[in-house]
Amino acid sequence: MPAIVKSSRRVQIVAWAVASLFVLGFFFNPVGVWTGTILGAWFVGTQKPRRGFLWMFAISFIPSLIFGWRKIPLTGPEQALHYLGWTLLAAVLGVLPFTFHRLVSVRLPGFLSTLPLPLAAVAISALLMALHIGAASVIGPSTFLIFWFAATVVWLWNQESHATEFVFGAGVIAVGGFGLFRHYSDVALPVNLLTGAAFSWICLGVALFLSVWALFRPIKQRTWAERPQTISRLQSPFTHEPLHVVSEQGREALVSSSGERFPIRDGIPVFLKPEDLTGDNGKYNHLYETIGGFYDDTQRVAGAFKGLDRDEYFLAYMRMLEAKPGDLVLETSVGTGLSFKYLPRGVKLSGLDLSPEMLANCQVNLRRWKMEADLYLGNAENLPFADSSFDVVFHVGGISFFNDQAKAIREMIRVAKPGSLLLISDETEEYAKATYEKIPITSSYYKNRQTTVKIPIDLVPHEMQEIHLEMIKGGLFYALTFRKPPAGK
Ligand SMILES: C[S@@+](CC[C@H](N)C(=O)[O-])C[C@H]1O[C@@H](n2cnc3c(N)ncnc32)[C@H](O)[C@@H]1O
Predict the structure, then answer these.
(1) Gap from CA of 459 to ligand 1 centroid (Å)
(2) What pLDDT digit, counting tens, does each position of 312-347 carry?
(3) pLDDT confidence band for 191 (50 / 70 / 90)
(4) Residue 56: CB within 6 Å of ligand 1?
(5) What's the rounded Cα separation, in Å, for the pair 449 and 313?
(6) Which candidate, 39, 177, 213, 458, has a CA 20 to 30 Å from the CA of 327?
(7) What value does the mean pLDDT take over residues 397-422?
(8) Contact criterion met (CB below 8 Å) for 49 and 96
(9) Does residue 355's CB lie within 6 angstroms of at least one atom of ligand 1?
(10) Which atom of ligand 1 is nearest to the CA of 334?
(11) Is 313 in the pocket of ligand 1 (CB under 6 A)?
(12) What does the alpha-carbon distance between residue 252 and residue 348 come to, in Å, rounded to a whole number?
């Protein structure tokens, strides 16, 4: 029976209204001051610091160079050079608060993480004023409120929790309303301390204090030596030898008795060989490395435009799993870990993926959701786990474009315990054509493909039991389940 996922008209209306406001912001500065700052704070959070800085710099420098040029009478090369230099400096300083926010906020707990952006923005806008560059239309407390509002909106968006949204939503509206009031009225603030240079100095001081604190604040991360049971399930994906942890100059690695060595980078063991990134695996890996930072958000926004209830969508296939607290659960091609939220609390999570960028975002998500998982960088066609290691093994969303789908399915079966139920879910060709071939970033990867999406039911070995196929959302997605025969059968 096909699973039906309902749409909500209310979600759709809100999504289109908010999107219209953001579009208006591009043409109408009083709105753009707010929406542009929110977009900047969001964008920089989705990117690695250097890439985020360069993109934001380009987005701010190129238009101001082109449009500012027309307004200023340039009489000679010296003046042109002068103009170029100041525009460049203004663009760099304009982006700095966002980059500072990107670097510091990730190391600060909870709501405190919204502060680096407004603090840095005030300090830098004071500097811009002192240098007489840029059109500093908002300064002091107004700057603080606009940037704080932006950081708070993005923080709330990332929390995804309705309870938190409710509590802080009221606060954000109050702060935003007060900011608007300050911006468009000349009412003096009751506290003199908050006006003039003193405020900028205070902000600079607090920003410095927060950055030093963030730098030295120890962030607890489990080492691999602390996970002996996990290590006992690991093996080399190439020689199948068991692995053990070694620590060299403070860095951990996994080694086999014949001397194979797998480094552990940012808490994630790396099991990749250059051959793993050839063919379709390499082609689509490039896509995920590009979109990893905003993979979750684009899914959420696209879902909201269609009024899709995301919880219902995920549960349409996740409810088929037989996971219970205490179970060892593996998702191959875990991506940013979106499915993990739909498993019972108390399961022991493992996820493997081919893309470092997707896994880095999975780590961020796990911290946000206060969950723990063992993550691995590897190819789903060569799993680094011993036979019969997991109670539940599933895969969502990547298999259609694997180099060797049959091998990936055999690997899932190998590492699953006898008697366990496995799940494979992905989009159909109909969805790939209707969506990925049309979206600008993905279209170049999906148009003129050699591979069309086929539901891999024929690749499931015939000895598997209870093979069952269910179509989801009117045939746009599918969920394929089957059971590994119990031991001795
Ligand atoms: C559409 S995403 C799905 C992510 C996640 N399962 C979800 O439901 O949101 C597809 C994922 O498959 C991963 N992937 C693609 N080829 C892979 C391979 N050969 N081995 C492991 N992961 C792979 C990509 O890096 C990407 O994270």
Answers:
(1) 19
(2) 889 999 999 999 999 999 999 999 999 999 999 999
(3) very low
(4) no
(5) 27
(6) 458
(7) 96
(8) no
(9) yes
(10) 6
(11) no
(12) 22
CA pseudo-torsion sign 22, 28, 31, 35? positive
Whether 138 has a pLDDT exceeding 80, the answer reads: no
Tell whether pTM > 0.90: no
Residue of 268, 281, 333 with the most ligand 1 atoms within 8 Å of its CB, for mutation: 333
* CA 281–ligand 1 middle distance (angstroms): 10
- Distance from Cα 340 to the centre of ligand 1, integer Å: 14
Domains of the chain by start residue, with CATH: 9-216 (no CATH), 271-483 (3.40.50.150)
Residue 421: CB atoms within 10 Å: 20
Instruction: Using the CB atoms, write b or e for 323-352: b if 16+ within 10 Å.
Output: beeebbbbbbbbbbbbbbeebeeebbbbbb
Question: What band does 107 get if pLDDT is binned at 50, 70 and 90?
Answer: confident
Report how far residue 108's alpha carbon sits from residue 133's, in angstroms, rounded to the nearest whole number: 32
What are 343-384's pLDDT values in tens digits?
Answer: 999 999 999 999 999 999 999 999 888 899 999 999 999 999
DSSP label of 433:
I
Ramachandran quadrant class, 162 (left: phi over 0; alpha: psi -120 to 50; beta: rest):
alpha
Neighbours of 366 (CB within 10 A): 18
Among protein residues, the one with the nearest Cα to ligand 1's atom 3 is 397
From ligand 1's centre to the CA of 153, what distance in Å?
A: 29
Per-residue confidence (pLDDT) for residue 447, from 0 to 100: 85
Contact 380 CB / ligand 1 (< 6 Å): yes
Q: Which two tokens stand for residue 367?
A: 């911290």
Evaluate: CB of 333 within 6 angstroms of ligand 1. Answer: yes
Does any ligand 1 atom lie closer than 6 A to the CB of residue 398? yes
CA of 172 to the centre of ligand 1 (A): 36
Helix then strand count (H, E) for the chain reads: 16, 11
